[in-house]
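If your schedule permits, I should be very grateful for your opinion on a structural question. The matter concerns a single protein, recorded as an amino acid sequence and a row of backbone structure tokens. Could you please explain, in whatever detail you think fit, how the structure tokens follow from the sequence? I set the record out below, with my sincere thanks for your time.

——
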Amino acid sequence: MSSQRPASFAQRCAALFAFLLYLWSPICWAITVYTAFRSLWYAVPILTYLLYINGPGLKTVTDFSFPTGLKHAYIWKLMAKYFPVKLHKTADLKRDSKYIFAMHPHGVLSLHAWCSFCTEACGFSKLYPGIDLHVGTLKWNFRCPTVRELMLSLGLVDVSKRTLLKVLQKPGRAVALAVGGAEESLLSCPRTMELVLKKRQGFVRIAVQAGADLVPVLVFGENDVWHARQVKTGILHQIQETIKQLTGFTIPLAHGRGFFFGPVGLLPFQEPINVVVGAPISVEQHTGDMRSEEAVKIVDKYHRLYIQRLMELYNAHKDLYFTNRLSDLKLAE
């Protein structure tokens, strides 16, 4: 465990809030269903709201009409100070280009994303002026009561192909994606970095279609803030895989520390997280059929180049931010 100064009560509350965000969806659904069944007076407005957010309200995800002032809330800064989370810039980004930030590793809950890219806790807009960044999340988040409003107030978008291409229509826009997804979260383990990348070409395909440059992002310390255990066989593994197939996310077997410094609890461990943003990889747009042999070769070429640049970024920073590693970066599949 880190030997840094103990976090303040406010910082611990902010870190706990980050964990509770992932429980907000089931909590909101439970409250909504319970309230709707209590009285017809509640059921009618609730049903109307649900029909709206699952119908006309979906266009709000891509028209960016929802106010995003919550990005500047002080709670995110407290959260960033708790670990702390630091955002490191290695190259400038042009305002007249489009970008896909590919984040590695996913970790148990991708806590770094709230501080570095979803909000201004780490000063993203000051480091990259003129870049309008939107973090991608699962589509069902925008169909859940009140969770939808939270996602929209932070500028998040769903990770469907249609939405990502629409976001990347204009220069100066960028999306951030946790490429490894739920599958990679199950590989989380302190002091290691095992990525699901060899078979993940979807983000490269989007970049080629949109003409968006690829930006590799390595997050040193994300796997250290929870003590996770990999489960590769047995009924628990089957449950994790079933949840992943049904929902797009899963629940790694992991724990944090106690709120009042106990050894086990729901609070993430106070370990430094260093988010290193690499130099952009220029991608030439392909406007033809993405199923053609030519397009497949183009995607393969950029995918290989991306992995090469990611490894170079890792080797350049591992002795600065990953000194306690048990093993070097591995590409699982």
Summary: The radius of gyration is 20 Å. The chain has a mean pLDDT of 91. Residues 293-321 form the longest helix (29 residues).
